[in-house]
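To whoever is on call:

I kicked off a structure prediction for a single chain this morning and the downstream step that reads the tokens threw a length-mismatch warning. I double-checked the sequence; it's 197 residues and nothing unusual in it as far as I can see. Pasting both halves so you can look.
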Amino acid sequence: MQQTMESRLNDIAGRHREVEHLMSQPETASNPNAIRRLGREYSQLQHIVDLWNQMIRTQSDLEGAENIITEEEDPEVRQWANEEIQEIQQKLEVLTENIKLELLPKDETEHADAVIEIRAGAGGDEAGLFASEVFRMYQRYAENRKWKLKVLSQNDTGVGGLKEVTFELEGERAYQRLHLESGVHRVQRVPATESQG
């Protein structure tokens, strides 16, 4: 493993311990924004630390297999150790690549929150009902992803629909998942506002 990568991983492990300590402090527990920020950072660091610990264990396994080859005289055991070394080296290559990917600079918007605006178009009450259904879809999606939904503004119609609603979704990769959501959605159906006779 390259020296710079190892020193970077040491820095990350140190920051991981520091964040863990900060999260256990009483003054942090009383600050929801700090808890959320530190929780996000901790989960990012935890993944890298887990990969690094796995790499350290795998390197130790490799050293053990190499010791068997130098110390063992039985050809069958040496052959088994050679096969083991090849498997371990492949595993190390995969781990190294995964760690390198984790160490690449992250997109700054990756953890940003998303603000979404839904407006009823032409179509009267029926358009408002459809806008309300689209909003409920986003509410359920946010619940499934464990995101926090905060309504910033809302203008209702008289029949249970929405003229417009603006809301913020806060959570893990909310912006990253939703930044391409845009456009006009058209619905064709038997209107819920039409009386059946």
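Update from on-call: the warning came from a stale cache, not from the record. Cleared it. Sanity check on the structure: The chain has a mean pLDDT of 86.
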